[in-house]
Design a protein that fits this description.
This protein has 146 residues and is α+β, with helices and mostly antiparallel strands. Helices cover 23% and strands 27% of the residues. It has four helices and nine strands, in the order βββααβαβαββββ. It has helices at residues 43-55, 57-61, 74-84, 97-101, and strands at 13-16, 21-23, 32-36, 65-70, 89-92, 105-106, 111-112, 114-119, 125-132. The longest helix has 13 residues, at 43-55. It starts with 12 loop residues before the first strand and ends in a 14-residue tail after the last strand.
């Protein structure tokens, strides 16, 4: 089920690469960018995460909390983040439960499809962009960070 703009974002708690528990509802008051992707270290996923690191510092400058989410473990995320020098956190959705809540779990691939969400300061969906397995363009995300 796809989420729509204006809906309350489904709450979740996931571990980041440092094993810190991140709860979406605790981030209210700040905009949040959630970027679901299939796997750490794969070509397209690496390129997209590097693109966020290299081209979208304005997201964090606007106060956004930025998270990549995949089914990989926090251990894999820690190595991936360190190797690529990411400034955003990576969250471990080991069983795809959060990707399922956000309508982007691909059961056949046993991983998330590519999808990007902007959550506004009140915890509502400001942007829901589903890409399936296709590479995405993040050039307009900053327009939704208010």
């Amino acid at each position: 089920m796809a989420l729509e703009v204006g809906q309350q974002a489904p709450d979740f708690t996931l571990a980041d690469e440092n094993n810190e528990q991140i709860t979406l509802s605790a981030l209210q008051g700040s905009p949040v960018v959630l970027m679901f992707y299939p796997f750490d270290f794969s070509g397209t996923c690496t390129a997209e995460n590097c693109e966020i690191r290299d081209n979208y510092a304005g997201w964090q400058a606007k106060g956004a909390k930025v998270f990549g989410i995949s089914r990989d473990s926090r251990f894999s995320h820690a190595v991936f983040k360190a190797q690529e020098h990411f400034t955003h956190s990576l969250l471990a959705d080991l069983k795809g439960e959060v990707a399922t809540k956000y309508g982007c779990w691909n059961e056949a691939a046993a991983s998330a499809d590519r999808a990007t969400f902007v959550i506004d300061r009140e915890g509502k969906i400001a942007l829901a962009h589903y890409n399936g397995r296709d590479r995405r363009d993040h050039s307009n995300i900053e327009d939704y960070l208010k």
